[in-house]
Amino acid sequence: MLTASKVICESNIAFGTSGARGLVIDFTHDVCAAFTHSFLNVLKKQFEFKTIALAIDNRPSSYEIAQACAAAIIQQGLNVDYHGVIPTPALAYYSMQNNMPCIMVTGSHIPFDRNGLKFYRPDGEITKKDEQAIVSNDYHFNEYGMLPELVINPEGANAYIKRYANLFSKKVLSGKKIGIYEHSSAGRDLYAPLFEMLGAEVISLGRSNDFVPIDTEAVSAEDRILAQEWSHKYQLDAIFSTDGDGDRPLVADENGNWLRGDLLGLLTSLELNIDALAVPVSCNTAVELTQRFKSVLRTKIGSPYVIAAFEGLLNSHKSVAGFEANGGYLLASDLIINGTKLSKLPTRDAVLPALMLLIASSKANISSLIDKLPQRYTWSDRVKNFASEKSQQIIAYALASPDEFLLQLGMAQRKCIHIDQTDGVRFTLDNGDIIHLRPSGNAPELRCYVEAEDEKQAEAYVEMILSRIIYLH
């Protein structure tokens, strides 16, 4: 007899900013079962359900992890509703519409030697409180033998396409030529049919049989060059892509320049006429500078924190949404678009922001929409394989001696005038530029976010900081 909390404690798998993550070798059958049993046991105290929806991304390890989760679901006498490879928001939308919990097997954008589990209640993402209850749950379970073979239900994918196809006329994207950078995205087989249903001409790009860990907050130099080459070669109006599990969008303009996710979220919110926003502290301050929103609430980084902020905003505002610097868009309230209801989906989604941007650019190209925003530029990147303990030491040093810290980073001419500790350490400098350092909640990485009045300056800051920070003690 195994105890869930003990198995989880000894597993090296931990909750981060979005789901439980860790190395594939640590996702043993017992560990997958422990998380699943705990999740179900916690939910049974709050909800009634007989079926659990389940889906995966395209990682080589994901199907077997799903099988182990399914075995635990069956062991509890519940039904498994398996949807195969679909985007996380598609699974979440389907499960919310059918009032059932769901589990998504995905490591999102992290490398293929890692994976993860995302858990959803019938009413949306689990909370930080739910996470604590899951890791501390003392549910007892037996080991099981053969893993079940899983049969795919296509309804989750179909419902996701219909969610957006039914909002607009079939010619709303007529005249648009859109490249879909498919790589190994969980939604790569859904996006072209959706855009074609709405009238666009679609070009398939970069499909890969190997898993590609696309990070929408730290786009590689190779992907930046590829986008520009594709845009020129095919004369595209836009390029659309996502991270591994399809909840973070990556969109390029007509010149093949990738948009920052927070600017994409801002343009989406303007197009949807959103009243109030919850956004992480790392998002571009152009959000406030537009002066178009009745309220903007800043949170820690991670969708659970954005979602937690919705409750207060919904009490006083009609339309509420949120987005992250990675581009994931969270819709907290129902909207009416073209006389049709768009149901809330308070989890990261990649398709809604891409569609709204394309519609907003129907009379002008995407780059001109960006040019109309307050000119604040952000850049971000990270140091990989950087121990969390080292990150915490650096942040402690930065807080203790901010000006000395800036000197060590090569910014002797700058002074710190404000420190924000909402998540990591965020310095506002005397020239208005912003430097933000934060340990990743998903992997052993130190992330650096910068905001400046000039994009080249923001990029240069990031390169200089990350090149020096690894030598700090």
| β-strand amount | 15-25%
Low-confidence runs: none
Radius of gyration: 22 Å
From the N-terminal CA to the C-terminal CA, the straight-line distance is 46 Å
Proportion in helices: 25-40%
Overall morphology: globular
Count every beta strand, where a strand is a DSSP E run of 2 or more residues. Answer: 25
Question: Mean pLDDT, rounded to whole units?
Answer: 94
Tally of DSSP helical segments: 16
Largest sheet: 7 strands, mixed
Global structural class: alpha+beta
Could you characterize what this model shows?
51% of the residues are buried. The protein has 16 helices and 25 strands. The strands form six sheets. Strands 2, 3, 4, 5, 6, 7 and 8 form a seven-stranded mixed β-sheet that branches. The protein has a five-stranded mixed β-sheet with strand order 15-14-16-17-20, with helices on both faces. Helices cover 35% and strands 25% of the residues. With 473 residues, the chain is of the alpha+beta class. β14 (276-280), α10 (286-289) and β15 (295-299) form a beta-alpha-beta unit. The mean pLDDT is 94. It is globular, with a radius of gyration of 22 Å.
